[in-house]
């Protein structure tokens, strides 16, 4: 897993309090929602805020491509 994937995986773990997981447990190609990591819409909002704070990116919830950004790490 490259550095950015590890950072994003750790951000997910820290933001969503997934204490029983490590960055290595999150497959970068696995879906974040549904049968993958099992995140829900509230998790997506929390993760979006964390990404904005950490990487200074702003995601427009009305942009249909945003869903694609949250499919996997």
Task: Explain what you see.
With 73 residues, the chain is mostly helical. It has one domain: Orthogonal Bundle (Non-ribosomal Peptide Synthetase Peptidyl Carrier Protein, Chain A). It is built from 3 helices and no strands. Helix 1 crosses helix 2. The protein is globular, with a radius of gyration of 12 Å.
Order of helices and strands: HHH
DSSP strand content:
under 5%
What is the average per-residue confidence, as pLDDT, rounded to a whole number? 88
What is the straight-line distance between the termini? 11 Å
How is the main sheet built? none
Task: Write a compact overview of the structure shown.
The chain has 3 helices and no strands.
Output the keywords:
single chain, 73 residues, mainly alpha, Non-ribosomal Peptide Synthetase Peptidyl Carrier Protein, Chain A, 3 helices, 44% helix, globular
In terms of topology, how is this protein built?
Elements: H1 3-15, H2 41-55, H3 66-69
Helix pairs in contact: 1-2
């Amino acid at each position: 897993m490259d550095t950015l994937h590890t950072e994003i995986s750790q951000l997910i773990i820290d933001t969503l309090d997934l204490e029983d997981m490590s960055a290595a447990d999150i497959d970068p190609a696995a879906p974040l929602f549904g049968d993958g990591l099992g995140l829900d819409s509230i998790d997506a909002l929390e993760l979006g805020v964390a990404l904005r704070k950490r990487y200074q990116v702003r995601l427009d919830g009305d942009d249909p491509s945003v869903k694609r950004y949250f499919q996997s790490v």
